[in-house]
Amino acid sequence: MDGTSEQRADAMFHALADRTRRDILRRVLAGEHSVSALAANYEMSFAAVQKHVAVLERAGLITKRREGRQQLASGDVQAVRSVASMLTELEDIWRGRIDRIDALLEED
Questions:
Q1: pLDDT of amino acid 75
Q2: CB-based burial of residue 55 (10 Å sphere; 0-12 exposed, 13-18 middle, 19+ buried)?
Q3: Percent of the chain with pLDDT over 90
Q4: Which residue, 56, 51, 57, 22, is CA-closest to 39?
Q5: Are 62 and 30 within 8 A, CB to CB?
Q6: Residue 47 CB-density burial (10 A; 0-12 exposed, 13-18 middle, 19+ buried)
Q7: How many structural domains does the chain have?
Q8: What pairs with residue 48 in β-bridges?
Q9: Which 3 state secondary structure label does DSSP give 72?
């Protein structure tokens, strides 16, 4: 990973580290929602939900578009796949290490 990719990964994992943001992401992956509709489901201010949406948008996990006075948010499936790919890469490194340990144990 280059520096830009690392910064993007940091932004994605930071965004996903928050329960509310993960819930928002789940909802917008299932279908486009207005930010107002998203805000109606949380016991927090509209402004707070807007901030969560902004964090997800900066991380590239969602996109927003305007339709009249509404801001409509959609999940970016490709971005979610890139997060899954990063986790798979880490799992592969871990599995390689376990395989080497198993090989050493078999030699004994």
A1: 97
A2: buried
A3: 87
A4: 51
A5: no
A6: exposed
A7: 1
A8: none
A9: strand
Q: What is the pLDDT of residues 28-72, one digit of tens each?
A: 999 999 999 999 999 999 999 999 999 999 999 999 999 999 999
DSSP 8-state class, residue 43: S
- Domain limits at 61? 3-106
Find the CATH number of the domain harbouring 64.
1.10.10.10
Q: 6 with 83: CB under 8 angstroms?
A: no
DSSP letter, residue 83: H
**Is the CB of residue 83 less than 8 Å from the CB of residue 12?**
yes
Token code pair at residue 102:
């198993």
Residue 69 CB neighbours (<10 A):
7
Query: By the 8 A CB rule, do 61 and 24 touch?
Result: no
pTM of the predicted model, to two decimals?
A: 0.84
